[in-house]
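Just curious. Protein, please.
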Amino acid sequence: MTENETPLDGLLQIFEQFAEPETLLTALLPALGEAMPCDRCFLYLREPTQNRGTITHCWSRDGRAAAWIGADWLEDSNLPQDPLMTIALRTPIAVFVDDIETASDDVIDRTYEREKFQHRALVHAPLYQDNQLIGILECSVFAQPRRWTESDRQLIAVLQTKLVAPVSVYIERVAPLGLD
């Protein structure tokens, strides 16, 4: 990153550099993890007509990324009652949680977040196309709370828009393989 370049500028260069969705998404997550900065970033992609989704891409600062990538597409009805997923299915507005320990119960299921995701702070950013949830970009911090800045919010808002096209292409190519 040059002296005048913002973290968002660096991320937008990745969109310019890579046209192929798989390559783009794979390159984007580590760069996003460094830009935010956070401990883990993942993409949960969803085939809305089948109501199924899975984690397709993940980067983790501690190298545990492979453990987060799902082999199977899960049906929405098989997902735990997760308030964040309920919110994401209703609205494209990103949820920024500074600390799961102090967040409202209508936003966070603390036990689920602690046991499944093992994070302390997170961004849960729905990706929408044609008024349907097609994915969630999640960035998280493990050990301590994190105050999400206005810059973080702006960066996520831009990514929520920029990711729609490559995510849509990716889902069209990959989802049929997992929906037998």
About this structure: The two ends are 44 Å apart (CA to CA). DSSP finds six helices and six strands in the chain. The first strand starts at residue 40 and ends at 47. Residues 8 and 158 are 8 Å apart (CA to CA).
